[in-house]
Amino acid sequence: MSSETDVIVLGAGMAGLGAALHLQARGREVAIVDRRGPAEETSYGNAGLIQAEAVSPYSFPRDLRRTLDVLLGRSTEAWLHWPSLLTTAPWLLHYWRQGTPERIAAVTAAAAQLIARTVAEHQALFTAAGVEGLIQSKGYLRVFRTEQRLEAAAATQEAESARWGIAYEALSPAQIAEREPHLAQDLPGGLAGALWMTHPLGALDPGDVGKAYAQLFEARGGRVLIGDAQTLAQEGAGWTVATAEGSVRAKDVVIALGPWSLDVLRPLKVTPPLGVKRGYHRHFALKGNAALGGHVVDEEKGFVLVPNKRGVRLTIGAEFARRDATPSAKPMAMVEPVARGLFPLGEALEETPWMGARPCLPDMLPVVGPIPGHKGLWGHFGHHHLGFTLGPTTGRLLAEMMTGEAPFTDPAPYRVDRF
């Protein structure tokens, strides 16, 4: 049995959902196809922040000491999976080359055009999906253990605030204790201070938010189908994909498969330099009478503490590895004791940590736009650390391009062939 629709969106994560909802709002009939249900990969396993301030890219550090710590396995911010090095080295070199001040300035300018809309785009969907109760509007804390790192971060933040209008407040240790009384109680020397990013939103469970968006999409007439994106084939003037309910045909297809996007694009001779940064999380019970009021980022150790319906979600840094390599035990084993020193975590609630792969282009900007040489094929992937944040915003940009509407910003910085 086969069916037709206007657009097939491959991928049911936040990028796919964001594009599908915006296309639907512009009168397109849309079917989402994924091998799993909605929001079950990195759109589930993230810190749940909707970041209104993240204009600066997560660039390759040029600090020699931090780089050596990663290479020697001493860092709690990032890890190099040595068995994957032959595969990951070319991408890492490209990533490093994008870390010049000139490139960072250009990327920041492009990212700022997207970040400026993130909260408003999500708020519209929260209201429509009826999930306001899953969202906190407390911003988040960036805490620092040393005066040196605090002063450097404050100087950078002040410059970003002046350039991009990003709101924040500096907090003393006493002010941190007022907001989060159970934080750093047993930390030797305590905290040096914090930067409170006042405008970001936080989801108590990002997976639940994604599933609610999918339900909204279906309530508006959309279809979410289980299928294999790698069955994508060109058929006449359109495209077909096999699903559990039969093949689906459409004039336009959106590739929103995150770290699996190349699996579909490579057979079409489209090979943007897409790499991955693997991330891990684990849930913990609260110890004693401890409570965590909001999201806390330990800037010097590279982890995030997240209030979650299961207790506290500990999300940790970036592992440079092959996407499908066996999960590593070392990252969580290194970070968990450090996190316990900052906040009283109870017992772990899963036997093993969850692992996912962030899809990353070397410049830390996503792909949004047409795939040259393939009529009706569109890219919407590579959202790196900000997929949950950016999905609805870049989904709007893509939908505007696909329907002939004037795009809200110049899409050129996000084209697939920019490298």
Short description:
This protein is of the alpha/beta class and 419 residues long.
Please provide a written account of the structure.
The protein has 419 residues and is of the alpha/beta class. It folds into 2 domains: 162 residues, 3-Layer(bba) Sandwich (FAD/NAD(P)-binding domain), CATH 3.50.50; 189 residues, 2-Layer Sandwich (D-Amino Acid Oxidase, Chain A, domain 2). The strands form 3 sheets. Strands 4, 6, 7, 8, 14, 15, 16, 17, 18 and 19 form a 10-stranded mixed β-sheet that branches. α5 crosses α8. The chain is globular, with a radius of gyration of 21 Å. The two termini are 41 Å apart. The mean pLDDT is 95.
CATH class category of the largest domain: Alpha Beta
Sheet having the most strands: 10 strands, mixed
Total tally of structural domains:
2
From the spread of the alpha carbons, the general shape counts as: globular
Report helical residue fraction.
25-40%
Write the layout of secondary structure elements.
Layout: E1 2-10, H1 14-25, E2 30-34, E3 49-50, H2 64-71, E4 78-80, H3 85-97, H4 101-115, H5 118-129, E5 135-136, E6 140-144, H6 147-164, E7 168-171, H7 173-179, E8 193-197, E9 201-203, H8 206-219, E10 223-226, E11 233-235, E12 238-243, E13 246-255, H9 261-265, E14 275-286, E15 295-298, E16 303-308, E17 311-320, H10 330-342, E18 345-348, E19 354-360, E20 367-370, E21 377-381, H11 387-403
Parallel strand pairs: 1-2, 1-13, 2-10, 4-17, 6-15, 13-21
Antiparallel strand pairs: 3-9, 5-9, 6-8, 7-8, 11-12, 12-13, 14-17, 14-18, 14-19, 15-16, 16-17, 20-21
Helix pairs in contact: 1-8, 1-11, 5-8, 5-11
